[in-house]
Amino acid sequence: MTASELKSSQETGESGKDLFLRPFHQSLPMQLMAAREEVMLRFRPHLHAHGLTDQQWRIIRALMEVESREILDLSDVCGIHPASLSRILPKLDAAGIINRRTNKADQRRVIVTIAQKGRTLFNQLAPESERLYSSIASDIGYDLLDEAYDVLERMIEALRTKRRAPKESLAE
């Protein structure tokens, strides 16, 4: 059932079922999770061989692109809940992969940076990661991969914009 067919059946009640909900295999969250899992099945052995989890690698990747990040920004960029991040960061810090320090202007805020050991680890993993990206592109086609990036970026932006839009005033 396509999205437009589902909308039509919901409006007219033509599905003949008590609940008007798309089939489970067409659940957007489930399809996104399934796609993510298929991709990560290729990356996990590589990460695990270096003693890293998916989340730890996302943190390293995010920190390699900037000088530093505050924890809430790092949480948002990596898609890791702040409570989970607060359990992961001490392990990475103890391993010498990252550095944490408090913000001088506001002691409640913590700044995270990549340490030299983290940079070295990143440089060790990057070539194989790029090879895995190339393998995925080869398997599904470079055009489809580019299209997937484009669609996902547009979808994320549209949903973020909608979520962050100010609520209309009830007084209006």
TrEMBL record:
Record has DNA-binding as a keyword: yes
KW DNA-binding (keyword) present: yes
BP-aspect Gene Ontology terms: negative regulation of DNA-templated transcription
GO cellular component assignments: cytoplasm
Domain HTH marR-type: 25-157
Compartment annotation: Cytoplasm
Keywords: DNA-binding, Transcription, Transcription regulation
InterPro entries: HpaR/FarR (IPR012712), HTH_MarR-typ (IPR000835), Transc_reg_Sar_Rot_HTH (IPR055166), WH-like_DNA-bd_sf (IPR036388), WH_DNA-bd_sf (IPR036390)
GO MF annotation: an example: DNA binding
Domain of life from the UniProt record: Bacteria
Principal localisation: cytoplasm
One Pfam family cited in the UniProt record for this chain: Staph_reg_Sar_Rot
SUPFAM superfamilies reported in the protein's UniProt record: Winged helix' DNA-binding domain (SSF46785)
Protein family according to the UniProt entry: Belongs to the SarZ family.
NCBIfam families linked: HpaR (TIGR02337)
Protein name, as recorded: HTH-type transcriptional regulator SarZ
Taxonomic source organism: Breoghania corrubedonensis
